Amino acid sequence: MSGKPRLTYLNGRGRMEPIRWLLAAAGVEFEEVFLQTKEQYDKLIKDGLLLFQQVPLVEIDGMKMVQTRAILSYIAGKYNLYGKDLKERALIDMYVEGISDLMQMILMFPFSPPDAKEKNLDSIKEKATNRYFPVFEKVLKQHGQDFLVGNKFSWADVQLIEAILAVEEKIPAVLSGFPQLQAFKTKMSNMPTIKKFLQPGSPRKPPPDDHYVETVLKVFKR
Asked: Any one Gene Ontology biological process term (predicted)?
């Protein structure tokens, strides 16, 4: 065992991508195991590696962790990305949960039936521009700082830059009415660890394509 965290999931974004983002932002190298067949997934369950019979699975510090939220909060705490006190942690949690609601729509989008894609895209745009992004625009404007919480880089910042880039892939002009978020995106994208993660050849996964959707349906079919 190299000591690096070991991530087991499919070779695509899904629920593992925010974990990859957070580790990368913290400057942590990791190894990946990609599931390609239902048999591989069933073996993990049979071997007792998946507490709730679900991936992501992250092996870190001698633990076999499942449940995305638990994994993310452990990594955030371990690498000092989770605020300085309970109040800051509560704010980070609130922001992360809000961003996760938006990301859930993006996560499910590739699995939309063809006739629902346009409607679902409109829904993502509407929620991003009217419900979620205005919150972060206002926060950044009100406190005049570079980061969302405590003027210090945190898990909330990582989740937000991931969400901004994911929405922009689908709706390129989505930030046109959000100057604070435009500046935030530029600043975050130039942080050394994030800049490295955004380069070609990094562990960041491309937007899901038909092959990824087929693999997900094959591996997780009941």
From this structure: glutathione metabolic process
